[in-house]
Amino acid sequence: MAKPTECKYCEKEATIHLTQIVDNKIHKVDICEDCALAKKMTDPSNFTLANLLDNLEDSNDEIVADMARCESCGLSTADFKSLGRFGCAVCYESFKDLLGLMLREMQKSTTHQGKVPLVSAQRVASRNQIQLWEDNLQNAINAERYEDAAQWRDKIMQLKNDLKSKV
To answer: Which end of the chain has fewer CB atoms < 10 Å from its terminal CB, N or C?
Structure first.
C-alpha cells in the first residue's frame, strides 16, 4: 500500500492536492485541511493556486512568467493564472497549448469519454455510417461501377431522410 502524501507545511496527511502547469512544468502542492484553513484556501474569493505557488519558498525560482498574450484582449498567461479565467473567446485558441497540458494533467483524456445520451449516440453512428457509404459511393464512381454507385446513393439518401424525420 502506498504511503500517504505529507502536507507541504506540516507532517500531517495531505488531503488537498493542487496542480498547476506553468511553462510546461508541473507544480504540485499537497496540503492538509488544517493548513488549508489557516491559509484561507477554503474561501474561493481569497485563494488562487497561483498565489499559493508564489508563496512557496522553492517555487519562485521554477515559475517564470510566460510572455504569451491573447491577440484579441491582450490577456497574458500571468493574468490568466492570477484571475483563473480567460478574458475573451479568442483566449482559448491563444492558450490552447497551456490548456491541453492542464487538461491532460487533471483528466484522463482531452476528449469526452463519458456517457452519451442514446439519441446522440445513434445520431453519431448514423453520421459515421453515411460517411462510410459516401466513401463507398465515391470508390464506385471512380471505378465506373455506376449501378453500385446508384445503390450507395439510394442508401445514403434513405438514411439521411430517416435522420431528418427523427429531428
So the answer is: N
